């Protein structure tokens, strides 16, 4: 997936060097302190990330009434889930909306303008999500793009593309995998990946 859109092979090192140079300049100018970046990283490691979305999806899998509320009023439903941090309605989470995959329909999340993304439930967006080629092609030919991700959607299944923005940030409730009837919420959450909540993959049983 990392080479799917022909990124330069040194992109990680190049961007890391730029980030470090910018960090050093901001510290020198007194805009931030040396601990600021560490604090931000800790937030994404412990509070904002796909582990939150996985808990929400797992609850939706075991509780049909909750799933309905999640689709109808995502913010209110997410607030019902115990153990989620207090950042769920903070930055990038103010206007989250969920859509559910099901028989005959598969949902795909993109952002044609830039890289709007529901940080509280998915963390930071991956490189390919921000790539102009992905953003334009996914809007024009979603089935072809999904196939390149290894997801061959039958022609009988409708593919719906949802365009995130500053007004609404979408995420997908993937279908519950077969053979998971005896699993609890924590075990089910372990089956949910960021890609399945973006619609470029499906959740599968371990």
Word description of this protein:
This protein has 206 residues and is mostly helical. It has two domains: 1-34; 48-198, Nitrile Hydratase, Chain A (Alpha-Beta Complex), CATH 3.90.330.10. It has eleven helices and four strands, in the order H-H-H-H-H-E-E-H-H-H-H-E-E-H-H. The relative contact order is 0.16.
What's the total number of strands?
4
CATH class of the largest domain reads Alpha Beta
CATH superfamily of the largest domain, by name, is Nitrile hydratase alpha /Thiocyanate hydrolase gamma
DSSP strand content: 5-15%
Instruction: Give the integer mean of the pLDDT values.
Output: 88
Label the CATH architecture of the largest domain.
Answer: Alpha-Beta Complex
- Give a quick account of the main beta sheet: strands, pairing sense, barrel closure: 2 strands, parallel
Q: How many helices in DSSP terms?
A: 11
Cα shape:
globular
Please give the structural blueprint.
Blueprint: H1 11-28, H2 36-46, H3 50-62, H4 64-72, H5 74-78, E1 96-100, E2 105-110, H6 119-122, H7 127-130, H8 132-140, H9 142-148, E3 158-163, E4 169-173, H10 185-189, H11 194-198
Parallel strand pairs: 1-4, 2-3
Helix pairs in contact: 3-4, 8-9
């Amino acid at each position: 997936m990392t080479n799917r859109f022909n990124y330069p092979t040194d992109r990680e090192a190049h961007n890391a060097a730029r980030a470090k140079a910018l960090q050093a300049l901001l510290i020198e100018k007194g805009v931030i302190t040396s601990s600021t970046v560490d604090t931000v990283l800790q937030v994404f490691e412990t509070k904002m990330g796909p582990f939150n979305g996985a808990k929400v999806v797992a609850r939706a899998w075991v509780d049909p009434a909750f799933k309905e509320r999640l689709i109808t009023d995502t913010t209110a439903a997410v607030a019902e889930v115990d153990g989620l941090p207090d950042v769920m309605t903070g930055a990038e989470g103010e206007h989250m909306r969920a859509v559910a995959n099901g028989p005959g329909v598969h949902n795909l999340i993109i952002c044609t303008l830039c890289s709007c993304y529901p940080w509280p439930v998915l963390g930071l967006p991956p490189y390919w999500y921000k790539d102009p080629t992905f953003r334009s092609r996914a809007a024009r030919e979603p089935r072809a793009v999904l196939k390149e991700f290894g997801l061959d959607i039958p022609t009988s299944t409708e593919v719906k593309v949802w365009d995130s923005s500053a007004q609404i940030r979408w995420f997908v409730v993937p279908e519950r995998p077969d053979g998971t009837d005896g699993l609890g919420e924590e075990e089910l959450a372990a089956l949910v990946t960021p890609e399945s909540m973006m619609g470029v993959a499906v959740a599968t049983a371990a």
